[in-house]
């Protein structure tokens, strides 16, 4: 069992907490990098939320 499978199992049924954690981690990275990589961080947050099955922004158009 991979680490990602373990994380998914722990977060299953808790999408709100998963979203908060992903957002908080992204905000931390943005703060430490002075938002230099905010586009990449936003993309990574969306992919993580997709992995955990809790992305409310799936219908959002891509940002340029």
TrEMBL record:
The lineage of its organism: Bacteria, Bacillati, Actinomycetota, Actinomycetes, Kitasatosporales. It comes from Streptomyces umbrinus. It comes from the Bacteria. InterPro entries: Antitoxin_Rv0909/MT0933 (IPR028037). Residues 1-34 have a biased composition (Basic and acidic residues). It holds the Pfam family MT0933_antitox. Residues 1-64 are annotated as: Disordered. This is Kanamycin biosynthetic protein.
